[in-house]
Amino acid sequence: MKVVIIEDEQLTANRLQAMLKKYDPEIEIQAILPSVSESVEWFKTNPDPALIFMDIHLEDGQSFSIFEKINLDLPVIFTTAYDEYMVQAFKVNSVDYLMKPVNYDELARAIDKYKRVHAQNKSGSIDQLLRSIHQKENGYKERFMVSIGSKLKAFETDEINYFFSADKLTFLVTADNIRMPIDYSLDKLVMMLNPKEFFRINRQMMVRLSAIQNIHVFPKGRIKLDLIPEMKEEVMVSLDKITPFKEWLGK
Questions:
Q1: Strand 61-62 and strand 76-80: pairing?
Q2: CATH topology classification for 143-250
Q3: Annotated domain spans of the chain
Q4: Is the dihedral of CA 185, 9, 107, 44 positive or negative?
């Protein structure tokens, strides 16, 4: 079976690829595509795969726009951060989903469903799926699913005070100082979180307004933040973010 993975997080794509090979070593990964534009160009010049694994948020926009740019009537399993209401919309259309972080058992069940349903040419309506996605495209992420051993734990976005990146990983930090790795880059989180509540202060951090305890202003306009819970390192607003940061505070 030939498969295409559309995912802009390399670690997530690698994990998915490894699990697909575990499910069936004969699965052929035709391509791993990180963006809408690269996906569109790839499908214009390459034979169709049997199945697509597709993230919703890509580095250059929402993945559903791929269907609007080219005629792509193929079965899709979404790897998505959308809530349960959105998930139900996918399932109505006989298009399955994988909540991040991807779980092997759910992956296996999704492929089994593909074999039962799509292999018999009973795929759902892409148009109906796109309408469902458009209805939710302006929604913000409400929870994060995190792998803890063999279990998944949900962290509500309201519990999270800030996110930071370190050692090529991204971590969430709750108000009571629980720190857990997640499968999203800060670039992606900017698109997923409510900009009224969260602001990316530099390349390594994104903070919630209510997590800011004190703001220190230094010569030449430099700004340092005290956060709840406290970070071991100094938390500085980068120079190019100072003006938009002040505007964000004023809102």
A1: unpaired
A2: OB fold (Dihydrolipoamide Acetyltransferase, E2P) (2.40.50)
A3: 2-136, 143-250
A4: positive
pLDDT digits (tens, 9 = 90+) for 38-82: 999 999 999 999 999 998 888 888 888 888 788 777 888 888 765
Nearest to 129 by CA among 101, 182, 167, 91: 91
Instruction: Judge contact between 92 and 109, C-beta under 8 A.
Output: no
Those residues whose C-beta lies under 8 Å from the C-beta of residue 24, and which sit 6 or more positions away, are 1, 111
pLDDT tens digit sequence for 116-157: 766 555 444 555 555 555 444 456 888 898 887 777 888 999
Please indicate, yes or no, whether the overall pTM of this predicted structure exceeds 0.90: no
Which candidate, 133, 172, 164, 186, places its Cα nearest to that of 234? 164
Measure the CA–CA gap between 43 and 103, rounded to whole angstroms. Answer: 27
- In this structure, what token pair is assigned to residue 137? 């495209």
Sequence-separated (6 or more) residues with CB below 8 Å from residue 173: 160, 161, 162, 163, 164, 179, 229
- Which uninterrupted H or E stretch holds 13? helix 10-23
